[in-house]
UniProtKB/TrEMBL annotation:
<dbReference type="Pfam" id="PF00254">
    <property type="entry name" value="FKBP_C"/>
</dbReference>
<dbReference type="InterPro" id="IPR046357">
    <property type="entry name" value="PPIase_dom_sf"/>
</dbReference>
<feature type="transmembrane region" description="Helical">
    <location>
        <begin position="155"/>
        <end position="173"/>
    </location>
</feature>
<dbReference type="GO" id="GO:0003755">
    <property type="term" value="F:peptidyl-prolyl cis-trans isomerase activity"/>
</dbReference>
<keyword id="KW-1133">Transmembrane helix</keyword>
<keyword id="KW-0413">Isomerase</keyword>
<keyword id="KW-0697">Rotamase</keyword>
<dbReference type="InterPro" id="IPR001179">
    <property type="entry name" value="PPIase_FKBP_dom"/>
</dbReference>
<keyword id="KW-0812">Transmembrane</keyword>
<keyword id="KW-0472">Membrane</keyword>
<protein>
    <recommendedName>
        <fullName>peptidylprolyl isomerase</fullName>
        <ecNumber>5.2.1.8</ecNumber>
    </recommendedName>
</protein>
<feature type="domain" description="PPIase FKBP-type">
    <location>
        <begin position="24"/>
        <end position="110"/>
    </location>
</feature>
Amino acid sequence: MATTATGLVYVETVAGNGRTPAPDDSVTVHYTGKLAANGKVFDSSFSRGEPTTFKVNQVIKGWQEGLGMMKEGGKATLTIPAALAYGSRQMNDIPPNSELIFEIELIKVGGGKAGGFDISELIPGDYLARSFASASVDKKNASTQSPAETLQKSAPFLLGFVVIGMASYFGVLPR
């Protein structure tokens, strides 16, 4: 068990043998998130039956710090103080100022590219993180995908329209 200067508590349950992700790496993980106060599960990729892929720098600070301590193939439990999670904001079923516990399995570092490319290669810096930082989704009436996942999966389709539009505009395609 390790407690960082920021208050994150990291407990490695299975040692990984791959590489540690960098902030701009894509990672594929399975996880369960619960409230430290009462153990109530608020989100789980296991219950959806498939892991989640995202860029490390697009998630809460506690995840960023915790993933930076893991190696591919490893499992860990992170106890994340509110300041490294959502702070004083209500986030769906997570009350303000909540300490969170995540059980994380780091399946893969790298990859996660939709249609052979990563949407973040087309979008500058931390645009997705900034865009969705204050977003709130009603999970009871919405998809289980995060906005970033939805955009990632839609990227090849959207890029196709852009390419066809540009080709038509510049006379490469018949009008």
